[in-house]
């Protein structure tokens, strides 16, 4: 579903991601783990087309997406939830979700969205800016999912969220993967969440993959050591 080959991304002359290779199978949930400043967001933003890549190839479901502008990447099945929960705070919950439908034929929010995130149904007429952090995170996930992506990129969804909600979020993501066959790449630093959600763990340091392992085979302490400063 996702094949990244010899891929480099940088700002100006300095490369942040250099020569990365990474493959995700359909329906796989992969956690991209790494400390602050290691290049997680840079990779995510370049994959969705917000920042240009320097070299290499990215195929999504067999299509080379590198020449595509962002909107075309979204049309071809990619969804992106950026770091920092950017909701439109003066729009309602419902209006926020509908912005994810702009490219779709139907302008109605399908029921399954509220089945995954019941709290959003209760709050659908409220201003998004008045929601709690955890509720806003669910809102931005709903907004990305309503366009029925095949590949979802999530950038640090647990940032600033309490442990019980983090646990719930892992459950919801696995449920969505199970029923929609979605492939997910999630950048994370919260180890408990990574262990709950991922099938595969990929550790990134200074823009290079330094470790990659199936969840079942992972040594938790080793992953923890990559995250400690
Ligand atoms: N717009 C920019 N211009 C120049 N350098 C940048 C820019 N954005 C990020 N960087 C640099 O690129 C490197 C990787 O940053 P990035 O945001 O990708 O890290 P991250 O892994 O997402 O970190 P965090 O966990 O803190 O979100 C850092 O050294 C950062 O300073
Ligand atoms: Mg980041």
What does this structure look like?
With 229 residues, this protein is α/β, with parallel strands linked by helices. It has a single domain (2-84, 150-227), classed as 3-Layer(aba) Sandwich (Rossmann fold). The chain is 34% helix and 27% strand. It is built from 9 helices and 10 strands. The strands form 2 sheets. A 6-stranded mixed sheet has the order 6-7-8-3-9-10, with helices on both faces. A 4-stranded antiparallel sheet has the order 2-1-4-5, with helices on one face. α7 links the parallel β7 (151-155) and β8 (183-188). α7 (163-180) runs parallel beside α8. The longest helix is centred in the C-terminal third of the chain and has 18 residues, at 163-180. The two termini are 33 Å apart. Adenosine-5'-triphosphate binds at residues 11, 16, 34, 36-42, 83, 156.
Average pLDDT figure = 95
In which range does the helix fraction lie?
25-40%
Largest sheet: 6 strands, mixed
Structural class: alpha/beta
The span between the termini is 33 Å
Please provide the ordered H/E string of secondary-structure elements: EEEHEEHEHHHHEHEHEEH
Bound compounds, each kind once, are: adenosine-5'-triphosphate, magnesium ion
Give the tally of β-strands: 10
Using the alpha-carbon principal axes, give the shape.
globular
**Could you name the CATH topology?**
Rossmann fold
Radius of gyration: 17 Å
Total of helices: 9
DSSP strand (E) fraction?
A: 25-35%
CATH homologous superfamily descriptor: P-loop containing nucleotide triphosphate hydrolases
Strand order of the largest sheet: 6-7-8-3-9-10
Q: Architecture in CATH?
A: 3-Layer(aba) Sandwich
> According to CATH, what is the class?
Alpha Beta
Spans with pLDDT under 50 lasting ≥5 residues?
none
**Number of structural units classed as domains:** 1
